[in-house]
Structures are given as structure tokens and as C-alpha cells.
């Protein structure tokens, strides 16, 4: 397991930073059905949702070189990332009595980034992330669907 640093990307990243390493990122969706824990009612209303990304481990895995079916250039060097999105949902359990409940849960994920060329083995692996979208939808009286779009970028800047 490699040492790593994780930092959040501001929304200006898309328009402001240099475009030299746009190949070394991954954008993906994760979701989870979560059971509501508040037993106060069945007429729920979601008030707020927030999330924070936590990377548990990173590992460099060497594989095949070539071109994938989707047309992606495979360099033979992959950065495997395992982590979780911590989610906090504030909701009102009963619109009449206005009981406010807080639900904390997490959504696990694993993904990989194809790295172009050699990876820095001396220092830590620098990752930047952006939670592009985080949504909670009431499915039925006891369940909500939490879905998120994440962007994680490998950053060579400090290597």
C-alpha cells in the first residue's frame, strides 16, 4: 500500500488549471439504498445532504499495455483506489410535528486510474477529488436512494 495525500478540488479546477494531465483522472457514479432510522413518522422530507471523501488505500498495479475496447490508451500502470463517501442526511420525519433527524452512512467504492508513464515512487501519491453531484431521493416510506458522481485526479505536481 502506497502513501498518499488527498485534497479537495475547487469548482474552478474544471476551467482554471492546466490541461496537461487530463488523462489521469476517473469520473464515476456510486449509489446506495439506505434504510431510514427515525421511527417518528413515515412522511419524510429531506432538508440537507453533505458528503466527504475518504481514501482508505492506494496501490500501483501493473498490467497490460494496449488499447481498450472503448478506445482508452492502456499504459500498463494503474493506480487502484479504495475508499468511501461519508454521507450526512438531515431530514424531517413528520411534517406535522417537524422532528428533525440526522442519518450518517457511507458508500464504499473501488476504482482505478490509468497512469501515463512512470509513477513517482519516492513521495506520496497526490490525489485531488471533487464531489460533482450528491443527491438523496425518497424511494418509499422506509428507504432513500443516495447517488453521487465523483471525480478523482492523479496529481504529478509534487512528484
Briefly say what this structure is.
The chain has 159 residues and is mostly beta strands. Helix content is 3%, strand content 64%.
- Biggest sheet overview: 4 strands, mixed
Extended strand count: 7
Helix-strand pattern: EHEEEEEE
Give the mean pLDDT.
84
Radius of gyration: 19 Å
Indicate the structural class: mainly beta
Q: What is the number of helices?
A: 1
In terms of per-residue confidence, which ranges show pLDDT below 50 for 5 or more consecutive residues? Answer: none
What global shape is seen? Answer: elongated
Number of domains: 1
What strand line-up does the widest sheet have?
Answer: 1-6-7-2
Q: Give the amount of beta strand, in percent.
A: over 45%
Helix content: under 10%
- In whole angstroms, the N-to-C terminal distance is 18 Å
Please provide a written account of the structure.
The protein has 159 residues and is mainly β. The protein has one domain. It is built from 1 helix and 7 strands. It has one helix spanning 13-16; strands at 4-8, 25-35, 45-67, 73-92, 100-114, 125-138, 143-155. Strands 1-6-7-2 form a 4-stranded mixed sheet, with no helix packed on it. The protein has a 3-stranded antiparallel sheet with strand order 3-4-5, with no helix packed on it. A hairpin with a 5-residue loop joins strand 3 (45-67) and strand 4. It is elongated. This is SipL SPOCS domain-containing protein. Residues 45-138 form the SipL SPOCS domain.
Structural key phrases:
159 residues, mainly beta, four-stranded mixed beta sheet, three-stranded antiparallel beta sheet, 1 helix, SipL SPOCS domain-containing protein, SipL_SPOCS_dom
Amino acid at each position: 500500500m502506497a502513501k498518499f495525500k488527498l485534497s479537495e478540488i475547487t469548482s474552478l479546477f474544471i476551467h482554471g488549471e492546466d490541461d496537461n494531465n487530463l488523462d489521469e483522472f476517473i469520473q464515476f457514479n456510486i449509489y446506495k439504498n439506505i434504510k431510514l432510522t427515525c421511527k417518528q413518522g413515515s412522511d419524510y422530507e429531506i432538508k440537507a445532504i453533505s458528503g466527504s471523501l475518504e481514501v482508505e488505500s492506494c496501490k500501483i498495479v501493473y498490467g497490460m499495455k494496449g488499447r481498450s475496447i472503448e478506445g482508452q490508451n492502456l499504459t500498463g500502470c494503474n493506480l487502484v483506489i479504495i475508499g468511501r463517501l461519508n454521507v450526512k442526511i438531515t431530514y424531517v420525519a413528520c411534517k406535522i410535528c417537524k422532528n428533525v433527524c440526522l442519518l450518517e452512512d457511507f458508500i464504499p467504492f473501488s476504482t482505478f486510474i490509468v497512469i501515463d508513464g512512470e509513477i513517482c515512487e519516492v513521495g506520496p501519491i497526490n490525489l485531488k477529488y471533487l464531489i460533482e453531484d450528491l443527491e438523496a431521493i425518497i424511494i418509499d416510506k422506509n428507504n432513500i436512494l443516495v447517488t453521487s458522481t465523483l471525480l478523482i485526479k492523479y496529481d504529478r505536481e509534487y512528484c
